[in-house]
């Protein structure tokens, strides 16, 4: 059984669980130790069940709780050399470092680290494979590159950032410097950029899309819906939303989700 859940998603903290057989991974931990333990309990698992923590980058909403959780439960922490060098995740039980772009395995889960444009040191997002099943995780990305489009083709499941609505960001309460950062090439995906990527990732074998890292200040579910409908058509209904408060509950991943293989014929040309 392969399944995913989120303990929370947004600028105040992130954490995604991926379970495959006996292997349980936590990708990012932006919450305090106490808050993380509580959120695990809500999902019916214990931090002591974890096999490892995997980090995307050093920003606090992804890394704040990593070191304490790692030390408390003797967990190895996988991260890029760049993330490690920032010192935000250095005081951990055991650091396992890799170069952005490397592929490796954590027990039953094959992990591909994907280099992404974001204002952090060697930030990575991830594609996971368990047998034939492919799951993509993509948040904290300033713009969509051809490498990203290529890497997230033919996913069976996708966790994808829809961070902000550009008009809401521009007219919202953030100071000008923060607006430039969030909306810039090394910031976050706006709804239209994310919908564009989803358009390229969409194929008959894509079962479900978890919409993540939604800004509470600069976005709304209606704005996300409208961007999706505009780009993918009003019939598109494979998505559900992750929240800051509760993330999303366990979603079981269908191991037979291979309607489209890697050579799926209607694959769209990379045009982003
Ligand atoms: Zn973030
Ligand atoms: Zn970030």
CATH class: Alpha Beta
The counted number of beta strands is 14
Report how far the terminal alpha carbons are from each other. Answer: 35 Å
Q: Which second-level CATH architecture applies?
A: 4-Layer Sandwich
In CATH, the homologous superfamily goes by the name: Ribonuclease Z/Hydroxyacylglutathione hydrolase-like
Q: Which small compounds were modeled alongside the protein?
A: zinc ion
Note poorly predicted spans: 257-272
Order of strands, widest sheet: 6-5-4-3-2-1-14
CATH T-level topology: Metallo-beta-lactamase, Chain A
Question: Briefly, what is this?
Answer:
The protein contains nine helices and 14 strands. It is an alpha/beta fold.
What do you see in this structure?
This protein is of the alpha/beta class. The protein has a single domain, classed as Ribonuclease Z/Hydroxyacylglutathione hydrolase-like (Metallo-beta-lactamase, Chain A), CATH 3.60.15.10. 26% of the residues lie in helices and 27% in strands. The chain contains nine helices and 14 strands. A seven-stranded mixed β-sheet has the order 6-5-4-3-2-1-14. Strand 5, helix 4 and strand 6 form a beta-alpha-beta unit. The chain starts with a strand and ends in a 19-residue tail after the last strand.
């Amino acid at each position: 059984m392969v399944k995913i859940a989120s303990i929370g998603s947004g600028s105040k903290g992130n954490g995604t669980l991926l379970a495959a057989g006996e292997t349980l991974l936590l990708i990012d931990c932006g919450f305090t130790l106490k808050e993380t333990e509580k959120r695990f309990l809500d999902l019916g698992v214990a931090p002591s069940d974890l096999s490892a923590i995997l980090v995307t980058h050093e920003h606090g909403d992804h890394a704040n709780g990593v070191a304490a959780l790692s030390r408390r439960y003797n967990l190895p922490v996988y991260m890029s050399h760049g993330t490690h060098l920032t010192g935000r995740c250095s005081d951990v039980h055991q650091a396992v470092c890799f170069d952005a772009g490397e592929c490796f395995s954590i027990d039953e889960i094959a992990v591909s680290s994907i280099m992404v444009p974001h204002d952090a040191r060697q930030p990575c997002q991830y594609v996971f494979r368990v047998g034939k099943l492919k799951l993509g995780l993509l948040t904290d990305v300033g713009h969509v590159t051809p490498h990203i489009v290529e890497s997230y083709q033919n996913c069976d499941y996708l966790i994808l950032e829809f961070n902000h609505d550009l008009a809401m960001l521009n007219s919202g309460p953030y100071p000008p410097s923060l607006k430039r950062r969030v909306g810039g090439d090394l910031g976050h995906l706006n709804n239209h950029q994310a919908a564009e990527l989803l358009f390229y990732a969409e194929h008959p074998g894509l079962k479900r899309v978890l919409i993540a890292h939604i800004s509470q200040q600069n976005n709304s579910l209606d704005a996300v819906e409208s961007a999706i409908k505009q780009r993918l058509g009003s019939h598109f209904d494979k998505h559900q939303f992750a929240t800051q408060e509760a993330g999303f509950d366990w979603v079981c991943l269908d191991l037979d989700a291979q309607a489209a293989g890697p050579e799926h014929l209607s694959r769209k040309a990379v045009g982003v």
